[in-house]
């Protein structure tokens, strides 16, 4: 079933002509947002530093050249695409004139065609195409690496010059990995560094790149998937002058003051339980399989078994498989097939029962927290504006401990409930790669003075065309909370669907993007 949002949840669409291209840093600073908060263009209170990003941009840098702050690579090819790499030197902290610098990487992508008679690829490198910035989901994950023109990338490149930015701390953007973060001498030093890796500075980086890369520093379209949509709403709040239009897919954030993590976890609980029920209804045989694994782990020495990397798998750790297994289109199947191979076969009479290496290795690979620890360290902070999360997921789980107690469920014959998008403090004890960062994680969980990520007045006064795909059964971005925020964004147009889950852009990107762009260009009627 597909529908548009009811009229009570959509404010009248506010179209506006583009009033001119911003050509100087002074204009960027003066128009940094509709109603700049105190301290925006200064170095004191640090709600945002968009004008700093603009003023630090080197106006001599163009799409065809490089500068000390922007190094552009040469064009290269993958099937039906032409690509070029860009590296930007940006401040770690935009509020400091003498800030340490980091590198932010972005990949430029255009359509290309292979010419057999010339044994080469020719593309749209020289064409005057509008720019589209893709903001990746996360936090803490790099953009995909294109191997061919397919899916949503193919659709975008039909119309745009696509920019795939590795958000700071990921991919090739000064990556924060277990090995690189080991350079810090104390947990406090690491925590002080990590506070600069949220949506506010991701948007600062995006503005820095736009001013360097887009001809005449014109505005661009932003496509935000999941957490990338959260970043896009931050962009709308504080730097709307850089935006031509915004497309959101499964990515409308809660924007309340304080820390909204408690509200998010409570709101997501109902859908999480429903996803568990649907999984066991599809694979009822897995109820007993999971019971058996939970009991085996609980009865093992220390309450769990060792993982290949040196971590420890416990019943509560097993439940975290729901993070990836319950919320995407093929997650149920992946989870089921993983449990198919949970046990080693008995090759020798009397050999003790043991969990297979395949299963243990698959468990470690399931969430990528060893390669992308930023997700675990920063996850709850994405909900914080002026208050601490205080390990919200753990507290919300404790509110309903009977339902989430895996061993109790196994003993009583009830289905074991897998948990959803939640990071728990004990993960920093049980996941080997996270162990060195436990103290830093605790510091971040208790931090109260997080700067704002959203501004309701700016969103209420929004003039940027915005269209959003809202998935009714989204396990990660709660439908009700998304609708509450949508009611605060003037002119937003909503496409509500239960045809897709959180992964609609990946599952059928062309259709999703056609729907959203059609709503903005008038091809899709409001009702």
UniProtKB/TrEMBL annotation:
Recorded hits in Gene3D superfamilies, A to Z, give: alpha/beta hydrolase
Signal peptide range = none
Extract the GO molecular function terms from the UniProt entry.
peptidase activity
Which keywords annotate this record?
Hydrolase
| Pfam families listed in its UniProt record | Abhydrolase_1
Q: Which residues belong to any copy of the AB hydrolase-1 domain?
A: 132-292
Asked if Hydrolase is a keyword of the record, the answer is: yes
Tell me which domain of life the UniProt entry assigns to the organism this sequence originates from.
Eukaryota
Provide one Gene Ontology biological process annotation: proteolysis
User: Family, per the entry?
Assistant: Belongs to the peptidase S33 family.
Protein name as annotated: AB hydrolase-1 domain-containing protein
Q: Which organism is it from?
A: Punica granatum
């Amino acid at each position: 079933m597909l529908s548009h949002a009811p009229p009570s949840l959509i404010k009248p669409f506010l179209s506006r002509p583009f009033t001119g291209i911003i050509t100087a840093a002074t204009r960027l600073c003066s128009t940094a947002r509709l109603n700049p908060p105190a301290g925006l263009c200064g170095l004191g209170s640090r709600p945002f530093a968009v004008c700093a990003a603009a003023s630090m941009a080197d106006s001599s840098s163009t799409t065809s050249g490089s500068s000390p702050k922007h190094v552009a690579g040469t064009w290269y090819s993958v099937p039906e695409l032409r690509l070029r790499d860009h590296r930007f030197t940006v401040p770690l902290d935009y509020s400091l004139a003498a800030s340490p610098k980091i590198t932010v990487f972005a990949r430029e992508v255009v359509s290309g065609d292979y010419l057999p008679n010339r044994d080469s690829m020719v593309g749209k490198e020289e064409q005057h195409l509008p720019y589209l910035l893709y903001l990746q989901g996360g936090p803490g994950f790099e953009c995909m690496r294109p191997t061919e023109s397919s899916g949503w990338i193919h659709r975008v490149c039909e119309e745009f010059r696509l920019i795939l930015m590795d958000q700071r701390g990921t991919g090739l953007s000064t990556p924060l990995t277990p090995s690189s973060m080991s350079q810090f001498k104390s947990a406090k030093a690491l925590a002080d560094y990590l506070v600069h890796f949220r949506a506010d500075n991701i948007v600062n980086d995006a503005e820095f790149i736009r001013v360097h890369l887009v001809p005449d520093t014109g505005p661009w379209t932003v496509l935000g998937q999941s957490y990338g949509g959260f970043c896009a709403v931050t962009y709308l709040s504080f730097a709307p002058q850089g935006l031509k239009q915004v497309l959101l897919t499964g990515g409308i954030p809660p924007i309340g003051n304080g820390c909204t993590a408690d509200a998010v976890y409570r709101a997501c609980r109902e859908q999480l339980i429903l996803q568990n029920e649907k999984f066991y209804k599809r694979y009822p045989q897995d109820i007993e399989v999971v019971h058996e694994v939970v009991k085996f782990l609980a009865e093992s020495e220390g309450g769990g078994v060792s993982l290949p990397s040196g971590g420890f798998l416990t019943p509560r750790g097993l439940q975290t498989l729901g993070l990836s297994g319950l919320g995407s289109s093929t997650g149920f199947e992946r989870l089921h097939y993983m449990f198919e191979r949970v046990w080693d076969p008995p090759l020798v009479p009397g050999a003790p029962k043991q969990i297979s290496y395949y299963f243990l290795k698959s468990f470690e690979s399931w969430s990528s927290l060893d390669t992308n620890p930023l997700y675990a360290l920063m996850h709850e902070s994405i909900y914080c504006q002026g208050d601490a999360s205080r390990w919200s997921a753990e507290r919300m789980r404790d509110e309903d401990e009977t339902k989430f107690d895996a061993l109790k469920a196994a003993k009583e014959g009830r289905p074991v409930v897998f948990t959803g998008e939640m990071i728990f403090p004990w993960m920093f004890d049980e996941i080997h790669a996270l162990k060195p960062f436990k103290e830093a994680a605790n510091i971040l969980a208790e931090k109260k003075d997080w700067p704002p990520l959203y501004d309701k007045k700016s969103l209420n006064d929004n003039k940027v065309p915005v269209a959003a795909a809202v998935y009714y059964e989204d396990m990660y971005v709660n439908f009700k909370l998304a609708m509450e925020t949508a009611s605060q964004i003037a002119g937003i147009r909503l496409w509500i669907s239960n045809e897709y889950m959180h992964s609609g852009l990946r599952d059928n990107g062309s259709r999703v993007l056609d729907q959203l762009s059609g709503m903005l260009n008038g091809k899709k009627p409001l009702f």
